[in-house]
From TrEMBL, chains A, B:
Family matches, as PROSITE patterns: GST_NTER
Recorded GO CC terms: cytoplasm
Name of the protein in its database record: GST N-terminal domain-containing protein
InterPro entries in the cross-refs: Glutathione-S-Trfase_C_sf, Glutathione_S-Trfase_N, GST_Omega/HSP26, GST_UstS-like_C, Thioredoxin-like_sf
Domain of life of the organism encoding this protein: Eukaryota
Organism expressing this protein natively: Mycena albidolilacea
Amino acid sequence: MSVSIIFYDIPSTHPSRTWSPNLWKTRYALNFKSVPYKTVWLEYPEIEGRCKEIGAPPSGAKPDGRPHFTLPVIQDLSTGAVISDSSKIAAYLDATYPDRPRLMPPGTTGLHRAFEEAARMQLDPISRYGPPASHKNLNPLSAEYFRRTREATWGKTLEELTPKGEEDAVEWKKLEDGFGKLDEWIRANGEESSYFMGDALTYADIFVAAYVHWIQLVLPEKWDEIKVWHQGRWAKLLKGLGDYETVV
Amino acid sequence: MSVSIIFYDIPSTHPSRTWSPNLWKTRYALNFKSVPYKTVWLEYPEIEGRCKEIGAPPSGAKPDGRPHFTLPVIQDLSTGAVISDSSKIAAYLDATYPDRPRLMPPGTTGLHRAFEEAARMQLDPISRYGPPASHKNLNPLSAEYFRRTREATWGKTLEELTPKGEEDAVEWKKLEDGFGKLDEWIRANGEESSYFMGDALTYADIFVAAYVHWIQLVLPEKWDEIKVWHQGRWAKLLKGLGDYETVV
């Protein structure tokens, strides 16, 4: 099968180049589906222009109402489809390549959508820790853009976003409890379960692993704590996804 | 099969007697599994004593730290098990009666658990409307207990809980948007899907239908609005569960 999909990702100075959790969701998904693709790297200020050029729909609206163009985006040269948003891309890949391994087994697409909402809520404290740490390893063009736009949205500097002192203790405990809830969901399938659907790795695992991988990469000192939570559950999850982290 | 399960429920003056969403979850589940059961009705002040008597575990802790005993509880005379909490009861029924229709198809118990969190969040505004309306049809013993304990927990009267005026407009819109999100999850399986797992009715549908049934019963004027939302989706959902609403 020749390359049929272009996958747009945001580079960093990390050896893997890829880093963002939302981009990891799609990269894991593409590797899991085993659909040939190649990466095109875009710095943050290049995203909107390229999206408009290839006809990628915005993923939402900016606070001022203008369309917001974000990655991941894939462009499938074999069908002409251009899809934005990791969740929609996963559904597209299952629908378009049904003979490849299913990211979401038949009948579970709606449950997966609900899972994303629920898991995002449990992992919410990560959004205070991850972005400032990510910023440190962006290339200059992206770093300037990222700081300017994020600080305008949040109304605080990247440095102010990171919880400190007592607030750090509270937020970090919230994150541990959130992962604890995810651990419960896995064990609801049976105490020996490794994945959110028991023995089978699905998009739910990819969704969570994308955040875990992000933290491992940008906050190695925090990863040292997370990797021993819940009997090493999250280190094992990343290991389970090891076959699907190739960057091509 | 002779009656093997006692199901504890809270009565009201409605013709169906049953009314509470959490109790509807278990009643629907028992009827769906087609496991013979009979209802034992307990007024609110009788719940804690009976739970302790039969060894039902508390479902959580009260604000002051004492154990909180709540219904639903089922007592399975054939196994000796006594289970509290609608979610645990559903898992118990699937594990103990695997030859009966599955509430949660194999591999989906963890996703269902996440679904419950996500759906509860979307339906959150209901908790401002439902309890005051429910109170009106409780028997005097339960009504006094319900008002006293709920008002202590919330720090406001039942009458103050119900959103009014502008706040009503805001909260009701939030609820409509929440149902809109649930509608999206159903449609994620395909536009023609009727249920959260596509064509198959599962515990996710029961979970949501329990709240819908509650509103239909205690707030008929609000139900007139909900039943036309999303192309009549929620009226159809209740109809789909019509075979499982028997009260025995």
